Structures are given as structure tokens and as C-alpha cells.
Amino acid sequence: MLLENMSMAFSAIRVNKMRSFLTMLGIIIGIGSVISIVSIGDTMRSLFADLYKDVGVTQGFLAIGYWVDDVRQSDYFTLDELERVKEVFGDQIAYIDSNMSTSAEAITKEVTVNFDFSGIDYNYIDVQPVEMVYGRYLNEGDILARKNNVVMDVDSARLLFGEENAVGRTFRTTLFGNVNEFTVVGIYKKEVSAFQKLMMGGQSDRGTAFVPYTLLTWPNDYFYYLHVYAREDVDLNAFFDQLIAYVANYKGREPEDMRMQTAMEEMNSVDTMMGGLSAAVGGIAAISLLVGGIGIMNIMLVSVTERTREIGIRKSLGAKTRDILIQFLTESAILSACGGIIGITIGVGLVSIIGAAFGIAVVIKPGVVILAVSFSAVVGIFFGLYPASKAAKADPIDALRYE
Fold this sequence. Notes:
57% of the residues lie in helices and 18% in strands. By secondary structure, the protein is α+β, with helices and mostly antiparallel strands. Strands 3, 4, 5, 6, 7, 8 and 9 form a seven-stranded mixed beta sheet that branches. A four-stranded antiparallel beta sheet has the order 2-10-1-11. A hairpin with a 2-residue loop joins strand 7 (170-175) and strand 8. The radius of gyration is 33 Å and the shape is elongated.
């Protein structure tokens, strides 16, 4: 019976091709919009998750809270305190530094380029891996001796020296009022996704380089942040809570006075925001499904009216009320499901084309596709229920007399 009803439904759709297509249009637009928006939202969430993984999800920044009114100089950190934290939490910390950085002009005989200098320890490469293509990374000797050595990426080397292999080349720069000559000891390369390039806006006119953090943080200096990477096997929430409690106690503060900014919290916040935005916009797009459902109801009422004599003949030959009801519900569901399939095809195709244009791997979840098809069929059944019920309740004698 089901196969017979489906065959009759497809026959009715073929007889009225244009009318059927226009009826499905609302479902096509609705399902296509929902699939596109949800897929774009999932893709963006995935890209941001990869972005934070690249930065380091175990990363955290600890400082005195900006809301604290009576900030004292002792609330800031020194290198001795940094070493003390490293000793106390050594088995849980993968990396720690003072998060010091500065911007200055890098000057050669040929050019002057604005550079962002970041102070790092020699083992920063363990938490932020890069591929060394020329020379070497900063080593422990560079850090302890405060050597004027730098490591930069290939783009920065090309920008400053006009070539990638700039190992051994020198430039002058002014850090904190002191003019010094720096030597390039290494050039690295780090793969950047198309999404990151898009966010950065293409090639930058600024250079970036790593210098020993001891050059930017002297023994008697105070600095604002403790920059920490926890080990990957550590319970992040428990570790950060312990670190806050320890530092707050050492500084004579309450834990509530300290501010812990973590990559994990930011990632969860962005993920929640993107998920909520995707759901909200997807919900708005789903309104068109309601319009499409009303269109199906309208055309099914027309179809019932046009096929009144057919209904009368079937009933006179023994068809039950339930048989007529199922026949028109099947036709309504198939009409809606076909629209859903076309909408999914358009939505998936559109998202794939956009992803290919920007070099981004799109995320299309099979569960969403299945749900969309099922939902479109349910819409067809729901909005086809009244026309089908009207057809099923038709009096066979009146139906046979209908012209």
C-alpha cells in the first residue's frame, strides 16, 4: 500500500511539475538556508577551535585584577617570583615567562621596518612548535647571558633583508632607550591556514621576532603578567585554581583579587557565542519553512478539490477513510521531502563553493542533513493533515456528483 501511495504521489507531482516546484520553493529556501547557516556556524566554530589549539589551549595569564583599587608595586611580579612559581609547580608547568614584548624600528643600511619583539625562554618552542629552516632557535645560553640574538620568521626576514636566509645578518634597534645591534641566529617557518591569512588581511608590513625574555625583563624589573602553559596531562581548572591561590597568598591578596585569563575559557566563550548565533540565525531562517508548509497546505487543498471525483470512485470501490487519508498524507510528505532534498543539495553546494573559494575545509554534519530531510517530511505531514482529512471525510455520493 505504501509503495502504491508513493507511486501515485510521484505521478501527481509529474503531472503538475511547475505547480509542484513552486509549492516546494518555500521548503527549498528554508532547508537550504538552515543547512547553509548551521554548516557555516559549525565551520567557524571548528576554525576558531583550531586557532586556539594552535595558540595553546593550556595557556594562561595571571595578573592582579583590574578591578582592584589599592594596587601595590608588590602586586606585580619579579624574575625571582617567576622562578619560585616554576619550582613550586614544576611538575605541572610546561612553560613560563614574563610575557614581555615591545615594538621598535629594525634598521639596516637599506631599510627600516617596524618590528614586534616578543621575549621568550629557550623552551618556548616546546609549546609553540615551529620549523627551523635556517640557523637555530634561541638556546639557554642566549637567555642566561642576555645576548642580542633574535629568531624571526621567513616573511619578516624577507621584509627586512630581502631574503629568507638572513642568518648572521645584523640590524640596529632601540629597546627601552638603548640602541643595540642584534644578530639573526635563526629563521623559522610556521604554517598558517587560509582562515588565519584571511583574518590577518594578507601580507603584513610589520615584522615579528623572538628575543631572550631576559633582555626585556631585568632582575629588578616588575612585570604585570605571569605567562604560563600547563602540561597537557594536567587538570587545567584545578591547576589554575591552585596557582591563583598560591600567588594570592604570597602577595597577601585574596584569590578574588587575581585575574586568570585562559585560552580554554576564551575558546569556550567563542564556541558558545558562535553556537548561539548560529542557532538564532538558523531559527530565523527556519521561519521560511512555516511559509513553505502553508504553501503545501494550500496546494493540497487545491489538489483535493481537483480530485474529488477520484476520491469518490476510490471510496465506492471499497477504499476506507484511512486509505484516502494515508494517500494524501504520503503525497504531502513526499512533496515536502523532495523540496528538502533539493534545499539540502543547494545548501551543501553553496557552503562547499564558499569554502573552496577561501581555501577552508567546511564542516557539514550528516546528522544535520538527516534531521533536515526528516523535518521537511514532518512539515509536509503536519500541513497536509487538514487537506488529507478533508479528502478522507468526503461523502462518496457527493464526490461522484462533483463536476
